[in-house]
Each structure stands twice: as structure tokens, then as C-alpha cells.
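Design a sequence for this backbone.
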């Protein structure tokens, strides 16, 4: 079968492409935004990528089109597709119908930490011999790929609450029918499709309704938004996990992991309290499919991280440049706290691109200021299409600059950074190649 994927360079759709190739299909695709790490993966798979606005992409013999959720009415590719009469479906539906049937699905949901938690869980299962399949919205270093069919009974999926496609407004995770469901946390996000936190809570309730009564829901203890979702109804086994949470079934207390009468030594595989919680959730989910706590802890000691999650991109002139996907005030705070833990004496420079739909159109300025205050210096990209005022965000910060273009921001950074600084560049996109441009600029200064 020849499958053509619209929006193929998104992390989810790129994973679908890999799974389709592993299933023996011929795959092509189209996209407008092509950048690593997904562009690198697709190139290695030998997939042709057409521009979205070219009608010729549909001239080849195509059996089925899989449509990414970034595609909307008005995109030339979408209009070509609808006029062609070709059969089409969403990525989550394709995954559910072609990959997840008959598997024990372990799904990781939540506003923050999905990619890291899913990567940890997939690695624990791999390390313990389960040979899992997985689809992750990032590239775990242990696997160096975002998706794999696997040969075992388990499939681990990052369960996103964003909608499935322009013709299917259900959250992606509703398609997955998980047997084990992690609920990591819940905050308002995706302001482009959700009007309120209650809208998102309704979608979380929908996925809970699909978990079998013999299945397991693992919920973060003390998260009020999640507790409100659970109060809508939960018909499955329920366990809670948390840090310093005496009521939780799974908890971290200092350097100990405690479950009932069991007590194990604990060292988080990545810096930051949030990553300790992510790891705990992965251990609890793996236990559900027979992995002992000792096996999980051993696996996590060999966990190598995820691309674009606290990823060191290089060090030049004594300046360390770190890439991170954080793009929400809570995630920004957690990222900077994690970096501060790893580099306690360094001057910390936070660089932020407000690129997501939520960050462009709706932002809690007080929350964002407080998150950025974890850094010593802040540099903010403020393009013309930003729909909120920058001054109220920067005003409480002692050292902060903004610029309308990436080039201008780069110049400001090169004038600001010094040997010993740690620069954390945060964006859910390519940020105009700022990471490499900064490193190159530092090399030029030393020449």
C-alpha cells in the first residue's frame, strides 16, 4: 500500500511514517516546516518530502492519505486532497487501526513531561526484555528513533490531548484505548482549540472512559485538575504517584522510592523534581506489565535522555548551550530549575521563543515572569505576530532583553554571554537555528 502523509515532519507524523515503513508500506509525504531531528529521521528512511502547495504530490498512485493535525482547510494540500476523492484518515486513527490492535497499550498523558516519561517507560521495557513498540514525540537517545513497531506485546505511546485532524476534533489519545494510562499533570494549554481548562478535562475524562475495568490509571497525586477529572468517573483500577505525597501508592521521599512496604534506593535519571516524578510514573507503569522495581531502577541508571530535553548542544568559549522544548510557564520553570540543579554556580541565561499557539495568543504574564525569574538573564523573541505585551513580562526581571528577529536576538546574546555561562534555548520549533548560530558566533569571536 502507498501511504501519503500530510504534515509528515511533525514528531507524531514522522513516527507514523516509520511505523508504516516497518509494516511494509511505501511512504511519501509533504510538509512546509522541515528541520531536525525529524527531518534527519525521514531522510534516513528514504522518504520523499514534497512542498505542501504542490498538486503534483497527488499525481503518484496513492492508496491512503494520513492527515496531520497541523493541516487545516485552506492549505493547498488539503484542498487538493478533498477534491481528489482519495481515502483519508487521521494519524491517531491510522495508529489505532494498524498498530495498536491486540497490544497492551501504555499511554502517557498530561500537559507536561509526556515525551520524557514515555521515553523512560519505553527504555525500561526494552532493558527488561519486553521489546516494546513505541511512538514518542521526540527522539530518545537510547533508541535514536522516535517510533518502532517492536516485537513484544506492549506498545508505549505519547498520548497527546491535542485534536486529531481538521475533520476529527477529538483528542488524539481517545483513539488509543490504553490498558495502562499515566496522567502526569493537567493545566490549561492549547488555547487555539480549547476555551478553558474544563474543555481539556472533558477530553481527559473521555480517555479514562476507554480504559478497561481490569486496566490501570496512574494519576499524579495532589493534582487538583486531575482529581476533578477522576471525580467525573473512573471504572478502572486507580493508583496515585507523587513526590513527598504520603497518600500516594507510589512515592519518592528524599532518596527513597516507597511502594507500600517496599523501600528502594532512588536517584533520578535526569535533573529536576519534575523528572523524578516522570521517572516514578514510568516505574509504576512498567510494574503493571511485570517489570520489578529493581529492574526499572537499573534501567533508568542507563537512561540517556531525549533530544531537545535538556540536551547540551555544545560548549564554545566556556559557554554551554542547552536545547529544551519547554514552551509553557510551568515547563519553563521546571526546565530552568533542572538546569540550576545541574549547574549550581553558573550564570543562567534563559532564551525563549513563544512559538506555540498558546504562547502566541494567550499567556499568564505573572506566571511567565516567575518562571523566567529562575534565570539570571532572560532573552525573549518578540515577533510582530505576538499577541500580548512584552513589557509586563520583562519588567519584574532584573536583566532582560527582547528582539523582534532571531538575528537581532543572536546579536544581543553574543554581546551578553561570558565564559562560564549556561544558555538554555527554549522553543517547540527550530528557533531559526539559533542554537548552532550562537555556537558559530562564539567560535567567530574566538578566531
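Sequence:
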Amino acid at each position: 500500500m502507498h501511504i501519503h502523509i500530510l504534515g509528515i515532519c511533525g514528531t507524531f507524523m514522522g513516527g507514523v511514517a516509520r511505523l508504516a515503513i516497518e509494516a511494509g508500506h511505501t511512504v511519501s509525504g509533504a510538509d512546509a516546516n522541515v528541520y531536525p531531528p525529524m527531518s534527519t529521521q525521514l531522510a534516513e528512511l528514504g522518504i520523499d518530502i514534497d512542498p505542501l502547495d504542490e498538486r503534483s504530490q497527488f499525481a503518484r498512485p496513492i492508496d491512503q492519505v494520513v492527515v496531520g493535525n497541523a493541516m487545516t482547510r485552506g492549505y493547498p494540500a488539503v484542498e487538493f486532497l478533498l477534491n481528489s476523492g482519495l481515502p483519508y484518515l487521521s494519524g491517531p486513527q491510522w495508529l489505532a487501526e494498524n498498530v495498536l490492535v491486540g497490544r497492551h497499550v501504555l499511554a502517557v498523558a498530561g500537559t507536561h513531561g509526556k515525551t520524557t516519561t514515555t521515553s523512560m517507560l519505553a527504555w525500561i521495557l526494552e532493558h527488561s526484555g519486553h521489546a516494546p513498540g513505541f511512538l514518542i514525540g521526540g527522539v530518545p537517545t537510547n533508541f535514536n528513533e522516535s517510533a518502532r513497531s517492536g516485537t513484544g506485546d506492549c506498545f508505549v505511546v505519547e498520548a497527546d490531548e491535542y485534536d486529531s485532524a481538521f475533520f476529527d476534533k477529538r483528542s488524539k489519545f481517545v483513539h488509543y484505548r490504553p490498558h495502562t494510562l499515566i496522567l502526569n499533570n493537567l493545566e490549561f494549554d492549547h488555547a487555539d482549540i480549547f476555551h478553558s481548562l474544563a474543555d481539556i478535562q472533558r477530553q481527559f475524562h473521555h480517555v479514562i472512559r476507554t480504559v478497561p475495568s481490569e486496566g490501570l490509571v496512574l494519576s499524579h497525586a495532589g493534582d487538583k485538575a486531575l482529581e476533578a477529572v477522576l471525580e467525573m468517573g473512573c471504572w478502572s483500577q486507580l493508583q496515585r504517584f507523587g513526590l513527598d505525597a504520603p497518600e500516594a501508592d507510589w512515592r519518592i521521599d528524599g532518596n527513597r522510592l516507597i511502594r507500600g512496604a517496599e523501600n528502594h534506593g532512588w536517584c533520578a535519571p535526569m535533573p529536576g523534581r519534575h523528572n523524578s516524578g516522570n521517572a516514578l510514573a514510568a516505574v509504576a507503569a512498567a510494574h503493571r506489565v511485570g517489570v520489578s522495581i529493581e529492574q526499572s531502577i537499573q534501567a533508568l541508571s542507563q537512561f540517556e535522555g531525549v533530544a531537545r530535553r535538556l540536551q547540551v548542544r555544545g560548549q564554545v568559549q566556556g559557554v554551554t548551550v542547552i536545547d529544551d522544548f519547554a514552551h509553557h510557564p510551568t515547563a519553563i520553570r521546571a526546565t530552568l530549575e533542572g538546569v540550576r540543579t545541574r549547574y549550581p554556580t553558573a550564570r543562567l541565561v534563559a532564551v525563549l521563543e513563544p512559538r506555540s499557539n498558546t504562547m502566541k495568543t494567550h499567556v499568564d504574564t505573572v506566571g511567565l515572569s516567575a518562571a523566567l525569574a529562575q534565570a539570571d538573564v532572560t532573552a525573549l523573541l518578540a515577533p510582530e505576530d505576538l499577541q500580548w505585551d512584552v513589557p509586563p513580562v520583562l519588567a519584574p526581571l532584573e536583566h532582560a532583553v527582547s528582539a523582534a528577529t532571531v538575528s537581532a536576538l543572536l546579536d544581543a546574546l553574543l554581546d551578553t554571554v561570558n565564559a562560564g555561562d549556561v544558555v538554555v534555548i527554549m522553543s517547540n520549533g527550530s528557533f531559526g537555528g539559533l542554537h548552532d548560530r550562537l555556537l558559530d558566533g562564539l567560535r567567530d569571536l574566538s578566531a
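DSSP finds 15 helices and 23 strands in the chain.
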